[in-house]
Amino acid sequence: MDKSLIFLDGAMGTQIQRLGLAPGPQPEKLNISHGKEIEAIHRSYIQAGADMVYAYTFGANPYKYPEGGFREVIWAALKNARKAAQGTRTQVALDIGPLGGLLEPLGEISFERAYDYFAQVIEAGRGADLIVFETMSDLYELKAGILAARDLTDLPIFATMTFQEDGRTFSGVDIDSFVNALDGMGLAGLGINCSLGPEKLYPLVQRMGEICQTDLVVKPNAGMPNMQGGYDLGPEAFVREMKGLHQLGVRYLGGCCGTDPSYIRGLTQALGGKKVIKRTPKPLEGPSSGTRFVPVKGLVVVGESLNPSGREDLQKALLEGDMEVLLREGLGQVQAGAQILDVNVACPGLDEAQAQAKLVKALQAVLDVPLQIDSSQPHALEAGLRVYNGRAIINSLSGERDKLETLLPLAKKYNAQLVALTLDERGLPKTAQDRFEIAKKIVQAAGDHGIPPSDIYMDCLALTLSSNQAQAQETLGALERVKKDLGVKTILGISNISYGLPQRHLLNQSFLTLAMDRGLDLAIVNPRERGIMEAIRSYQVLKGGREDLVTYMKAFGQEVQKEEADKKIDSLREAVLKGLEEEVVQGVKRALEEKSMEAIIEEDLIPALDQVGRDYEVGKTFLPQLIQSAKAAQGGFALLKEVLKSQGRPDLSRGKILVATVKGDVHDIGKNIAKVLMENYGYDLVDLGKDVAPDQILERVQKEDIRLVGLSALMTTSLASMEETIKILKKAQPDLAIMVGGAVLTEAYSKKMGADYYLPDAKANIGVAEAVFGHKKGDPAS
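Predicted structure:
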């Protein structure tokens, strides 16, 4: 790998299909049954000029191989790739794809279980030259894999995700969130593979090149699927478009679905010997959740209220494990204007590490704001950082030697940013100069661990005026200097300044305004305090631009701030919108005292889900929030079903739907997501799994009296099977409604096959079901 520009291989599945091999539900077993053929495919890519081949281990993991045998498959796969590369300098990668199930909160696989699954794969894959995670759509799942790889090996790691045309993965991850979370993890390569061709990937790769310091990896498809069951880009057109990606500074170039050795040969002939175009990326500055990056540009509000200190209600909730109370507190802060939430669970008698991890998981299931994990206990900080999806902030570091030695490696390991207090073993510094010297020491120590100043939020300590009135100016002077001379960001806990004094809100507002004028970046405040948010928005509109004026008008033009700050989760519909299952259950219980079950469904549960669906369609919310709201609504449906059962009345099912991935296709993540959504909308699902023959589907359709069937396919080679399935079903039952979905499908091709409905995304399933079962008029899918 001493070349400047490095070439990767192309598709494996495409080649297997061309050889006429039947992949089956666990296609990687071909490494054992047809090892020579797999070896030959690897060799063909090496002969075409590939510097690196991915061993055929993509889906070989404990989740997809519940009966065992995945280790033997991995050993055989690496052996096949090694034999093909013998006598060359070609590198062999352990190729790791998605587990095949959904991680919490989208599914039932816990983060810890996912880590364990990946760890088993990596242990079995010892002997590879590097580890590649590819075709990932869930940043949380990808993080679990990367942590396992880093904990168990020192091998180079590539991580590539698969993006849709809208610039997000199916779980809502955008380029900025992806890069911000992983760019500082010490990986050998970050990038994109699958889904789209080179031309459509261009703007996404361009954005990565602007912000990503890690070498870029790109393996596009051969364009988009065509009506003939192939892809629309031949080798020449593919290479022509790949030249554009090379100009963006990509170092590792290869192909994904639809490509073969002729594509890689064309690529190496056109670009062989070329240098990587030098990039000058500007890293992002700010924290992020799994779906949202928050740039630290102007003042950013950190909500301070998720802290049990002095709060009996929060202490009680933590000790009893009542997440709903804590979620309401977090939601209320975000509604009032918090852009980041500080999360502190320190409470006597509580296992702080366990509670921190539990609350972090609960919060990120319903909110998309970044979290600032707050604890004086390193093990509690790590517990929260480990399960956090995104890039968190640690609160807090100080200049004390033991803190530096403990927390800086922790921040580096998890690519976290840091709040740093300007105090050390000598205690609280009294002057701005003393604070600056401690800040300088912290910045130098962080630099030794590879942490830049831009990842540090220096807290120059707002001390109460009641003990020393001059301290306010010392704090402000230190804040201005550390920002200017050390290049750090700044943060303050504003309310500390007024402790023990009357009319605290007046002092807090004035001090905050002074701090903003000195360059304060993050303010830890209670956003429900009207005066605080008024001071922030007023200052921003006076110092900022048009966007700040629009925010100001929205906040005060119609006194929206009162509605937002005082809002409570007091309606069933709102509980669904916020994804609070226990609140939904309690809301249904209250509603049963006033209205019928049918009215609760049609007036509360379904309209709320429809609103979430509309927000999803316009990009206001993403798949995690959509599924969380659907799960919350399902809690209400489940309660209603229990009531019906106790009364001996018919079930509330809104209809029965059969879903399956067609014969010859072993990918079922999309189908599983659709299934979760439809179940949580009140439909009964019959799931036949993956690689399902047409006669099996027909048999169950007739046995279960099914009116609607959903078919899934991810590979172009399985589209013929999908078309055959549709013909068989329609011939036997002409009135049967069939909806189809999958990355390789287009609306035109679905019509050509004879399907009734085309599903561009998971949400479209609901519209189809409502149309078929008469809940709504029209054809929502088209």
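Summary: The chain has 30 helices and 21 strands.
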